[in-house]
Amino acid sequence: MDLLFFPTVNQIIMNTSERVKILLYYFMIPVVLFTLVPATAAAQMFSIGTAGSERITIPEHSLYFGIEPASASYYGSHTFGPADARYDFEGTLYRIRYETNSLQIYGATGSGLSDQNDITFRSLGIQLQGNLNLYTKPTVAWTIPLFASTDYYMMRNSQTANTSAEFSQNRLLFGLGQELVMRPAQTFRLRLKTAARYGVSASSFGASVGTAFAFDQQVRIYLDRLIGPVGINAGFDYSYNRFMTAEDEFKYNLDSITFLIGISF
């Protein structure tokens, strides 16, 4: 998978010094650009109205609930013994998301994800977003979003809960992407977003630090202000996460698609 401005999966798997150079590079881009881009610009670009008339603005907040078919697959070279825990699974997660133009908070949970050892999954994260506007008109906007995020991922079974064998990763990621927003009518919007992020991943039960990569695609459909200030939203997400941990037994890929329904206000 080749991504503009980001290394491929094969390029990411390299020696430690090269990883440090890439991490510093992706750290500096968002830090510099976040200082240049006002976070409120995207919220104002679709304000509609004429001189002397009431301005109509889009809702600033969205809350979603979703169903998320997901799978985790091990890709490392560790040799697992009969008693060792593996967290490969295919199952369904339940997700909640809160979104604004500059802030996203999200979490997911699922249990009974494997017939062999009853895997439990939890995740929780927060992301800050700034926008570099490339093209802005009353009905269409094209931006480069800039991201800084931190999140927590946990996979475990009844034997490994709260032990060093539990998959428990804390990540700090930075990245950028592309976003296209169209508003052909005052109460209808369509948002398409692609994002790639790279950073560090640290185990909760160890002192070693590895790296992580994330790629996300989002579709949002908004029917704004159907009942007073409240609108109805629908969404579809694809997410790919690669954990390049220092511990070889925790090297997993996580893929998921999410179907979302929510409200805007």
What does this protein structure show overall?
This protein has 265 residues and is mainly beta. The protein has one domain: Lipocalin (Beta Barrel), CATH 2.40.128. It is built from three helices and ten strands. The chain has a ten-stranded antiparallel barrel with strand order 1-2-3-4-5-6-7-8-9-10. β7 (188-203) and β8 (209-227) form a beta hairpin.
The order of strands across the largest sheet is 1-2-3-4-5-6-7-8-9-10
Number of H/I helices: 3
Number of separate domains: 1
Using only C-alpha atoms, the radius of gyration works out to: 20 Å
Note poorly predicted spans: 1-27, 29-44, 48-54
Shape: elongated
The proportion of residues forming helix, as a percent range, comes to 10-25%
Tell me the distance between the termini: 37 Å
CATH architecture: Beta Barrel
Q: Provide the succession of SSEs.
A: HHHEEEEEEEEEE
- How many beta-strand elements? 10
Oligomer: single chain
What structural category do the secondary elements indicate?
mainly beta
CATH top level assignment: Mainly Beta
Strand content: over 45%
Mean pLDDT equals 84
Major beta-sheet overview? 10 strands, antiparallel, barrel
How would you describe this structure in keywords?
single chain; 265 residues; mainly beta; Lipocalin; ten-stranded antiparallel beta barrel; elongated
